[in-house]
Design goal:
By secondary structure, this protein is of the alpha/beta class. It has helices spanning about 5-15, 35-45, 55-65, 75-80, 120-125, 130-135, 150-155; strands spanning about 50, 70-75, 85-90, 100-105, 110, 120, 135-140, 145, 165-170, 175, 180-185, 190-195. It has 7 helices and 12 strands.
């Protein structure tokens, strides 16, 4: 047994006794209107929210809101099916080629009402650089995947199988000591969330389900 093995064996032999996790029921959210709560919070952190019934409606809002003459990419095949202006992500494309993305449209695993964040995994991003290098980020989240608090979000994502994931809340921003807020400082200039009320528009389950 070498030195490393002896150290690890000593650590393993001196583990503290197991104890039950604390009860966190008091931190769980209430039966508030999650769509309204999420929309209010997300708007206050610099984002935009649209409640939609279909991906076709999402495509129409994209045309109204963004410059469709520039490159738009998505990881949602259904969205590509309703618009030939949108490029479907391909794993065969080199990551360096994503430098000119004007808008990225991704689907979130879930959203959190209390802070406006969405949970994106690498499977949803396609390539992990996409939600950070694009000029504008748009995220589609089915309404039934909005949870009240981060505690409930972690209960759902804790059993997921993913190599990389991140909570993203609003456009990138920074503020100096003079309280001057700058949006789009080191990432997307804007972030838009489309809350999809039609459950039939998505077949994706929570991580681990």
């Amino acid at each position: 047994m070498n030195t490393k093995e002896r150290i690890l064996a000593a650590v393993l032999a001196n583990q503290p006794p197991a104890s039950p996790l604390p009860n966190i029921d008091s931190f769980k959210g209430t039966d508030q209107d999650l769509i309204s709560t999420y929309s209010d919070v997300f708007t206050t952190i610099g984002g935009s929210v649209f409640v939609v019934k279909s991906l076709a409606e999402v495509e129409g809002l994209i045309q109204e809101t963004f410059d469709c003459t520039r490159r738009i990419i998505t990881t949602l095949p259904e969205l590509r099916d309703v618009s030939d202006r949108i490029e479907l992500y391909s794993a065969e494309v080199m990551p360096h080629s994503f430098e000119d993305i004007e808008l990225a449209v991704l689907e979130a695993e879930l959203a959190v009402a209390e802070n406006g964040a969405v949970w994106l995994t690498e499977q949803r991003m396609g390539q992990r650089i996409i939600p950070y290098i694009c000029q504008h980020l748009a995220v589609v989240v089915p309404a039934e995947r909005i949870v009240p608090t981060l505690h409930e979000a972690y209960e759902k994502i804790g059993v997921g199988d993913y190599g990389f994931g991140a909570f993203i809340g609003g456009p990138s921003k920074t503020a100096d000591i003079e309280q001057a807020l700058v949006l789009g400082a080191h990432g997307p200039i804007s972030m838009t969330v489309f809350i999809l009320e039609s459950e039939a528009s998505s077949t994706t389950s929570y991580p681990g389900e």
